[in-house]
Amino acid sequence: MRALTRTINKLTAKLLDLPQDITSDLPRLTMIGNVQLYIENHRGVLHFSSELLGLALSKGRLEVHGKQLVIRAILSEEVFIEGVIDELKYIP
Description:
Elements: H1 2-16, H2 20-23, E1 28-32, E2 36-40, E3 44-48, E4 52-56, E5 61-74, E6 78-91
């Protein structure tokens, strides 16, 4: 059933020319320089400190490494951080 749903979502996205992150439950990251990062479609904060943000994703997790990291806004599926971002790491 789940595979059928994914197939239907992919076909719908292709037919309607929709971005894959909308239909495939993928994260969308928008980064401005190395000082701001906006992440959509996360599944929760696993860890936060001024040097590391860990987020759960639908498939795997994302780690944001940096200095003076601050969460400026957080919603159920969106998070906006600022600071000096040194590294983004996707872990399957």
